[in-house]
Every structure is written in C-alpha cells, then in structure tokens.
Amino acid sequence: MTLTITAQTISTKSIEQLNELSGENVKLCMQCATCTGMCPMTAEMDLSPRKVMHLAQFGMLDRLSDSNTWWKCASCHACTVRCPRGIDIAKVMEALRQRVLRTNKNYIEPSALPAERIAELPQIAMVAAFRKLTS
C-alpha cells in the first residue's frame, strides 16, 4: 500500500479526535510491528494493527472506513503489553469503533439475527458483542 502524504491528505483534526477518544497519542508509534506480531487476530484482519496505526498517524481515517480490523480486535491487550512505546493500541481500536458507532450505524443489527441463532449462543457472548458492535 502506497501512501501519498501531502498537506491535503493529512487530517490533524482526525488525529486530535482519535487521540481524544482513545486517550493515546498515535504519533508515538514507531512502526516496529510488534503489535501485529503479538495479535492473535491478525489472520482475520484485512489490515494489520501496524497499518491501522500508520494510517491513524496521518489522520487518514477515511482510508480505514471499510476495514474490519478494529471490529475483529479481541481487546486482549497483547499489543499493548509488548508495545515499546507504551501505546494502548486496544484503546485506539476501541476509539475507531466508537467513531463509527457514534454515527448510529451498527456493525451488526440484533433484530436481523435469527431467533434460533440467538437461542443457541451464550447470553454473556451476546451482551459482549452487542456492547462492542452496536450503538
């Protein structure tokens, strides 16, 4: 993936918003890819956590809009524990989810799930999924 970096492509407003939502400074990331190496969900993601952080550093959140990476994040904090810069990457992923959910757009629609599917799933899993994936 080639990034063209110009004054027009960098969004300082997006960077500030993401930093405020997450409580983290995405600019501290040095792109070592330790987060990607530690992530148990990387195989399920279309962009690695390192790539997400890279795009976030330039405020290119529009390029991340179709990514499934932050939805697939298990919030296990393996990336955070090993980050040499101490960035809580799981919080950044949560902030990216919150940006979408604050537009009242659900990632999954509970009413669209078949009743038999809901009956077979553990209630705790349903509650956790709905908290994470619905506004």
Defining traits:
single chain, 135 residues, mainly alpha, Fumarate Reductase Iron-sulfur Protein, Chain B, domain 2, 2 domains, 8 helices, globular
Topology readout:
Blueprint: H1 12-22, H2 34-38, H3 49-57, H4 69-72, H5 78-82, H6 89-101, H7 115-120, H8 123-133
Helix pairs in contact: 1-6
Tell me briefly what this model is.
By secondary structure, the protein is an all-alpha fold. The protein has 8 helices and no strands.
What does this structure look like?
The chain is globular. It has helices at 12-22, 34-38, 49-57, 69-72, 78-82, 89-101, 115-120, 123-133. It has 135 residues and is mainly alpha-helical. The protein has eight helices and no strands. The model has no long low-confidence stretch (mean pLDDT 86). Helix 1 crosses helix 6 (89-101). It has two domains: 12-103, Orthogonal Bundle (Fumarate Reductase Iron-sulfur Protein, Chain B, domain 2), CATH 1.10.1060.10; 106-135, no CATH class. The relative contact order is 0.16. Helices cover 47% and strands 0% of the residues.
- Kindly provide the radius of gyration, computed on alpha-carbon positions and rounded to a whole number of angstroms: 16 Å
Q: What structural class is derived from the secondary structure elements?
A: mainly alpha
Q: Secondary-structure element order, as H and E?
A: HHHHHHHH
User: Biggest β-sheet: count, sense, barrel?
Assistant: none
User: Which CATH class of the largest domain is shown?
Assistant: Mainly Alpha
Count of extended strands:
0
Report the average pLDDT across residues. Answer: 86
CATH superfamily of the largest domain: Alpha-helical ferredoxin
Q: Ends: how far apart? A: 31 Å
Helicity range = 40-55%
Tell me the fraction of residues in β-strands, as a range.
Answer: under 5%
